[in-house]
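Hi R.,

Here's the chain you asked about this morning:
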Amino acid sequence: MPNPSPSRRPIHIAKPTGTAGPFKASFDLRGALSGSFDKIAFPKSKDEVEQFFASRFIESMNMHLAASNEQFILAAPVRNVENDFDFTVTTPSGSAYLELLEAAPLTGKYESAPASYKPYDYAKFILGEILRKSVKYPKTGVRDIFLLLYVTHWTFVLSETTVACLRYWLLQQPTAFRATFCFSLLSAEEGTPQWLSPVPSELIQGFDPEAVRENVCHNLDPRKFEVSYVQNP
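And here is the predicted structure, written out as tokens:
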């Protein structure tokens, strides 16, 4: 079989990623306590990074729903090689598209990103990225399009206030996406999935983004955690 022409060969574009992973504490057989940061080894290419997050997001959603014997609406993400959409997924109503967007308001390298941010400002940044992506797609005439916002660096994990702001604004601002989610990893296998839009209005009832405009979120660097014994008095 002849080799594919250069124009049809898949191009593996390198994808910079941040630092994420859990801090694990353990006892050895002698009862000695130790702890270490377990860095997640992200894939190197953009396609592989997005496949990594799409798969673990869906798996994590199903883990969260398992207790109620439910199954997540998205399944079987398949990478689209020659398509404007990142993935095709299956849903109860047929095939749909899944787009991915990294939450990373970088002004330099990941390692230079500050550990603190204002949730209001961060949510505004993310909202702008979502809207810029949304205008690329028609709101009707295509399959349903879902959007997954994901995090690769510990400084950019979304706080609950950031999530609340996004839910509030996305409830008022229509986009091309059937639903929007966010996802950050707890380990290389699973993470924390959250539904950003649409959500029931009762979920943000009484919330006012302006009331949290000056709030500051401080994320902790898991690489600097330490373990120690605490003796009861």
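One quick note: The two ends are 76 Å apart (CA to CA).

Cheers,
M.
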